[in-house]
Automatic annotation (TrEMBL), chains A, B:
Domain Acyl-CoA oxidase C-alpha1 intervals: 275-436
Stated name of the protein: Acyl-coenzyme A oxidase
Domain Acyl-CoA oxidase C-terminal: start-end pairs: 479-657
Family: Belongs to the acyl-CoA oxidase family.
Any single GO BP term: fatty acid beta-oxidation using acyl-CoA oxidase
Chain sites annotated for binding FAD: 139, 178
Organism of provenance: Xyrichtys novacula
Amino acid sequence: MNPDILKERKSASFDVETLTNVLDGGPEKTRRRREIESMVLNDPDFQEEDPSFLSRSERYDQAVRKSAQMIQKLREYGIADPEEIYHYKKCVHPDRPEPLDLHLGMFLPTLLNQATPEQMDRYFMPAWNLEIIGTYAQTEMGHGTHLRGLETTATYDPATQEFVLNSPTISSIKWWPGGLGKTSNHAIVLAQLYTQGNCHGLHAFIVPLRDMKTHLPLPGVVVGDIGPKFGFNEVDNGYLKLENIRIPRDNMLMKFAKVAPDGTYAKPPSSKLTYGTMVFIRSMIVGESSRALSKACTIAIRYSSVRHQSEIRPGEPEPQILDYQTQQYKLFPLLATAYAFHFVGQYMRETYHRITGDINDGDFSELPELHALSAGLKAFTTWEANSAIEVCRMSCGGHGYSCSSALPDIYVQFTPTCTYEGENTVMMLQTARYLVKSYRQAKAGQQLSGIVSYLNEAQHRRVQPQPVAARPTVVDINDLASLVEVYKLRAAILVDLAAKSIQQELQRRKSQEDAWNNSAIDLVRASDAHCHYVVVKLFADKLRDISDTAVHSVMSTLALLYALHGITKNSGDFLQAGLLNVPQVLQTSVRIKELLSQLRPNAVALVDAFDHNDKKLNSVLGRYDGNVYENMFEWARRSPLNATEVHESFYKYLKPLRSKL
Amino acid sequence: MNPDILKERKSASFDVETLTNVLDGGPEKTRRRREIESMVLNDPDFQEEDPSFLSRSERYDQAVRKSAQMIQKLREYGIADPEEIYHYKKCVHPDRPEPLDLHLGMFLPTLLNQATPEQMDRYFMPAWNLEIIGTYAQTEMGHGTHLRGLETTATYDPATQEFVLNSPTISSIKWWPGGLGKTSNHAIVLAQLYTQGNCHGLHAFIVPLRDMKTHLPLPGVVVGDIGPKFGFNEVDNGYLKLENIRIPRDNMLMKFAKVAPDGTYAKPPSSKLTYGTMVFIRSMIVGESSRALSKACTIAIRYSSVRHQSEIRPGEPEPQILDYQTQQYKLFPLLATAYAFHFVGQYMRETYHRITGDINDGDFSELPELHALSAGLKAFTTWEANSAIEVCRMSCGGHGYSCSSALPDIYVQFTPTCTYEGENTVMMLQTARYLVKSYRQAKAGQQLSGIVSYLNEAQHRRVQPQPVAARPTVVDINDLASLVEVYKLRAAILVDLAAKSIQQELQRRKSQEDAWNNSAIDLVRASDAHCHYVVVKLFADKLRDISDTAVHSVMSTLALLYALHGITKNSGDFLQAGLLNVPQVLQTSVRIKELLSQLRPNAVALVDAFDHNDKKLNSVLGRYDGNVYENMFEWARRSPLNATEVHESFYKYLKPLRSKL
């Protein structure tokens, strides 16, 4: 063990294991998670070559191998609880996406949710046993977020009782679905349904893509890999062009909407039935934001505790770089963010599960708020984590650029969350739509409940934007409850500002739609403030559940840092609204410095508590033992370019060049 | 040509070619640049396989091939002007680093600057003719920015008149130098010089690494590639461990410092002699920030003009995504930033050349200011461009993640600029040191000149931070000169704040060094504000040189957008200092929206003016003709994973799995 990191661990004021239990949701959960992780980590079948040293085809190959083994072992061991499967999978493919993700996460669940009993009989067991490997083909080359724009057609032919599927244009080619390129032999294809001369919008169809025996593409199916990407090297994201593909009528998923043999269309009873999955996935992404950021923080903070550089005091040995105020200022607010997002993710999952019962009973009353919240928080947390991971990487100096640090991989694996499952700006605007709607309801005298209740008219009237210092400020910047309040008022004011912008546009005779678009900057800003408020509030709420005094104390410091750091980063908002005055903003900066010093002795222990196993983290810089340099040297020597002492390019180009110059 | 992008070009209010000439520095410069570019682009010897489809070893191989051809052809064509070589090189390796970068950019220049005439005789021609290929080995595994911390030793042995070089620890292994791993057979090694029992600090030594004939590493030389990185796949960044390597006395570069045969050390006449190169390279990086960002903007804005998505008005066709206010708000300020940084880069290069004469005459008086400015601006522009490139990428939705967009490559090639040639936070603190020193001089009654003259006491007294609205504000947010003024005052106030923080720490009996470290957040913030002021000022200054009315008009709009956008992003600073009041901040937001609308018809023309050739840009999304989708499909079909219809992993893992479940 590196003596520096040992010293850091001794300086912690709290028990790491207790905090890990808080994060996991109890000691028993921690125990079981570790048990599952060790099943994978000690299993020689899951040993791998470092993907950084492999070509893309080799990475895909290795991932398919491990996925196949994973499926087999999960069945063998009888691991069936979704949370346990999650832990197992996250260890087999350490936070990397894999070729079967869409089969397991979309194809099977869509069958479960949208197939008729007859369809279940026909498809489920073959899919469960991986004879059928499926994907979910929705996005097209020219169409993403806006589902109505999708162009793929499924035209019913009553003569043969078949649907004829087509990709009528280049832009209609299905593009991006994971596992579509090489892995899947079936896809659930989303297409515009045409029957009896009418279009009935998007419906889902089971389309065979490849021969079950030879795995060769079927006639009329043009399928392949979309090529190299920023990350996602393990996944064969694919394209699919359908040329007059005929499938039987009962390949349409007909649990809800139906097409009769004669082509008569019957529409689904409710459009909200597929709503829940989307909310669930976005809630999960909030948790992933925390997970990815917590890994980046673990690496950056451990490394900063063993890296020595430059000098603070002349003549003394080079200090640990974690002693530089600028380094603390870069990393500790991000550490606080990782914790904040973890608790938000916990809250979202719990809330989702709480209201799932209601949804199954047909009670959708709480869904709109959760939907709006999951959209905005998905965007808020992924954007924050995305840039934060890069700050962590760059805080490691040159070595952060080496793949041995794992930081480049964490970034490229995480960054797509800003775009998939709903592009972030679109998500922010969805949340804004809910906020503006609620705002108008409140204005119309309706009493709002839930998280938007701060928009209620009575409260609202008190918080008009007004010149700074015109209102007596009673905020205590050392009191978290007071800060939650001030974040709430900021959100209220920014929602008000956005709504007024729309109003002004309407008064200039703009249409509703143009007024909305011309206020979009303000709307995104309002959503952002709303989400920020929710995060601060949930972090503060969580403190109540923490009984251990030492852990409570350090978490309170982190929560305070999170809240105050957000204020300095957005001080214009708070000043502009008169929520804080200038001396308070100056005090905030001073207080932040104190909090950084306070957190300094606990920094390593705080990342230890995330409990990222070394093998999973796979980072030379983030090693638990802090022995960075010798292991970096060892890693480098395994670089494929070192397989020979002299690279062939010397003989081919450099040596011949001498005689030519 | 895509009709959308054609329409965009017709809507431009200015002549693109005229603006391109402004950027190049005159029509003749544009003509010659294009002439050189076409020499490369039409040369079949420089055709290449898309690097995205290659393994790392293949990428390195292709780069060596092209570098060798480049050297040969540059000599053949007699291209010798540094600017022309730059254009040629930037076309051969489109903005990618390459294996000979350090030979050409560091090894040869260091010989020129630091070798004695005898050493020149011995080394220069062999190096010029690539018999000797060299690199510059400074950074060690455990030591980067802080040169005094480097551990490699060169101990003089008068008995044999040799230096003995050693890497005494793991952390002393040379790490990162480009071209060190496989390409170079020599290195200029920076090592601590020991002679007659004393250490005389870092000196440069020419060390042979590989046999000139066989290219095999020499005895005692442990050399290799440091392994895969975030980008830089074409370069063999290397490690070097020296085990009692003996080199003759005259392998030390002795133009300045000297070791006599008996071991007597003679120190160099001035320490500032190597200062200029650093300033030059950092100035160049400012230009690279603009270059990389202008490419990302070109891609994002062209694509946004042909991509249609969602709806603004129901029932109407999907609009170009460039019509969304949020998209304009993402991209147009970045476009303005790319222009701003281009002009700053121009200014830095011109200033450097202007004072080079003085430096050669031994007059260093202007160097400290330029040194401070180049450090801070290097950090300011690379940080800004770094995050801006990612905003551009994510503004392209899913397709921004595809390597066919070129955006992932632009990012990974650019992001190291934040760390190399001086880690950005360290750079900001260097600038801060100059600012605080100047501030103290001004306080002591000295009259400052140059760019820091705003710190002069008289002016300074007027701009103490004070409650908002307590001072009458006379800023006109529509007047660029007025905004330059307000940026200047902000910088003055933040320098004052940082200096006072140091003062307060000293009053708490902290040492100078601890006071500095405890004020580092404020110091970085002051530097940032200083650089921001300089950028706004130089952009405004540049407008005076633009005679074409139409170009002047659109550049003025961009400059105004740049300045106002910076205000909204940092509104807290301006409010806190009482430089703007709340209504002005609100007006700024409104004004920005107007500017976005104003720029909308010129957006495509403004990126066209950067004149990035399609072949160099190598981006399907950024194609000049806007024909994105068909070319994306064609590109994807060339993906190596599509070489076979069925990937071998199907036979190896997926098919056998069926019988096991």
